[in-house]
Amino acid sequence: MPPIKKPQSSLKATRPSEGLVESPAPILTNTAPSIIRPMYDGLPNGRYLAEITDAIIVDVNGRPFLKIIITVTGDDVHGLSESFLLKPDFRFTSSSFHKLLTVTGTMPDRDQPLQTDLLIGQQLLLTVEEAVRNGKTYTNIVDVEDVPDDEADEETDDETEVDDASTQV
Q1: Cα(86)–Cα(14) distance, rounded to whole angstroms?
Q2: Could you give the CA distance from residue 76 to residue 48 in angstroms, rounded to a whole number?
Q3: Nearest by Cα to 102 from 56, 52, 144
Q4: Domain spans in the chain, listed from the N-terminal domain onward
Q5: Which of 1, 21, 99, 123 could form a disulfide with 144 if both were Cys (CB 3.0 to 4.6 A apart)?
Q6: Where is this region: Disordered (predicted)?
Q7: Which numeric CATH code is attached to 46-152?
């Protein structure tokens, strides 16, 4: 769903010594909120660095689903938000639902509820692909990975340089 931008009010409050007084309202030519069409209809097929901005359990035809809203934090579609419905599937480790909970460390213990608030703010790498069913196009999560630790990569590079230098002597 595209973001809805609301115009900001230009009313300013001042505090003279007697109390709070509002400055006169400016003449506004258009006070209706605007709707801006996003650059993409959905995330194109690819791999994205993203952050989960919301996670809730929703009812779809009498069955619970996990709805997550992500915002892309890297690449050329930075800031694009997308929502996904994930069917709860604890049995198959290849399911997007299972991968998401494993990577984020939010897999509940047996007979315990999923705590969706623990998903919010988590950063991950998502691979998405479009699928067409019944004439409709859907964007699906096909893989979930942990974000690589840049510091660990730098430490490994430093150790490699030392090892290379010691073998050359």
Answers
A1: 50
A2: 10
A3: 144
A4: 46-152
A5: 99
A6: 1-24, 144-169
A7: 2.40.50
